Amino acid sequence: MSAGPDWSGRTLQVRLGPPGHGGFCVARYEGRVLFVRHGLPGELVRARVTEDRGGSFCRAEAIEILEASPDRVAPNCPVSGPGGAGCCDFAFATPEAQRGVKAAVVREQLQRLAHWDTDIVVEPLPLGPADETVAAGAAPERSAEAPETGWRTRIRLVVDAEGRAGVHRYRSSDVIADLRCPQPVSGAVDGIAESRWTPGAELVIAVDADGMRHVVELAPPATPPRRGGDRRATAARRAAAHARRRERVVSGSGRAVQYVAGRRWDVSATGFWQPHRDAAQRYSDVVAGWADLDPGSTAWDLYCGVGVFAARLAEQAGPRAVVLGVESARSAVADGAAALRDLHAVDLHAERVERWIAGQDRAPQVVVLDPPRAGAGKQVIVPLTAAAPARIVHIGCDPAAFARDVGLYHEAGYRVRELRAFDAFPATHHVECLALLERA
After folding, report:
1. Binding site for S-adenosyl-L-methionine: which residues?
2. What percent of the chain has pLDDT over 70?
3. Which of 58, 77, 397, 433 is catalytic?
4. Does residue 236 or residue 148 have the better pLDDT?
5. Which of 255, 282, 298 is the last residue in one of the domains?
6. pLDDT tens digits, one per residue of 261-271
7. Domain range for 168
8. Binding residues
9. Which long-range contacts (CB under 8 A, 24 or more apart) does 306-309 make?
10. Is residue 246 part of a domain?
């Protein structure tokens, strides 16, 4: 097969079509597909090609809007425009339009990967009265047309060679030392830009439910990531980034206080917690409502983290229940065990989920699972469905992975009885989906 044309750097006038998974709209030019960022469906734009590997598609950015969508507003993120970071894919669209784009993407992924056609409504996660009392600062008043801001309580920054904190340029290892993104809660990044940090390090910032800010510097990877764009180089960079690294607590205690349904967790500031200040409570409420456990039931919480869902399941099913949680991160299991020590029905295990399931001989009534972005996949869903739980609550933060997993459930004889999607990452292309599945 001969290589296609190289359009890198060219500026093309195109009409934008439907949204695609990843924060872009699809356009066509001379028989090729363009994935165009910074535009909305229906807009006529001048798009500059930023990446072309000679195949059937290339990537581009809308640098001039010739015919604007009525859903377009003035962008409120100065970091994420053409040539910038990938933090706020849709900072130029109304919240309603953003949710419409996300709903279209989820529906398309379910059609294509799960062969299931269904309507999707993406719900907002408003900052409620309890959230607005966070000491980091109440969310500013905003109009219905303005993109939402001040929702992110967890931030991860990179440090450039000069010791300045910033974010990566989109699809690049370059660092943009500009912290004006409107996602973080008020006060989260105060003083960070004015300070100098260890070159190559990363910063984790967490503003907890008591309003305390924790800043932790992660030492640079022990083995410098290999340069290059091939798969082995990418795998090496990822492995280096996720390897255990020395932590230096710069401010706060490094232990973040979080509350869900009146229960307190003390968790590592560098561990996982939902970044949207309202997400953990909202998802927990949905899970508890769908689980509908009988007293004394057996339930599984897979990829349980610190046991937020396990706690709700145990409280619902009572002291004679058996609630088993599984999580590969030992530190999260330790934090969860400490927070749930009064719930004798809960037993958390530090193990890989697929390995743990293989050793179980007691069928659960309900299974809740919140896998990582890549999804659960066959290695988990096949043995999980073989255990024949009455209900499964599946949570996914990537529409494609979520749709693939739904397809696997369908193959195993389960059907989605309820589906909810939340705009837990305003101004970005990300969306959280929750599905209740039962046997057909």
Report:
1. 274, 303, 327, 370
2. 90
3. 397
4. 148
5. 255
6. 999 999 999 99
7. 154-255
8. 274, 303, 327, 370
9. 306/265, 306/267, 306/271, 306/273, 306/332, 306/333, 306/335, 306/336, 306/339, 307/336, 307/337, 307/339, 307/340, 307/346, 307/348, 308/260, 308/265, 308/280, 308/283, 308/284, 309/283, 309/284, 309/368, 309/370
10. yes
The band of 351, judged by pLDDT with boundaries at 50, 70 and 90, is very high
Average pLDDT over residues 8-37: 97
Residue 61, in any domain of the structure: yes
Q: What is the mean pLDDT of residues 38-42?
A: 98
Q: What is the CATH number of the domain that holds 28?
A: 2.40.50.140
**What angle do the packed helices 399-411 and 378-386 form, to 10 degrees?**
40
Answer yes or no: is 207 within a domain.
Answer: yes
State how many domains the chain has: 2
- Known catalytic membership, residue 397: yes
Q: What is the pLDDT of residue 135?
A: 35
> pTM value?
0.90
Is the per-residue pLDDT at 180 higher than 70? Answer: yes
Question: pLDDT-derived band of residue 137, with 50, 70 and 90 as boundaries?
Answer: very low
> What's the mean pLDDT when you consider all of the chain?
92
At which of 255, 285, 312 does a domain end? 255
Within a domain: residue 115?
A: no
Separation between Cα atoms, residue 75 and residue 186, nearest integer Å: 19
Confidence of residue 139 (pLDDT cuts 50, 70, 90): very low
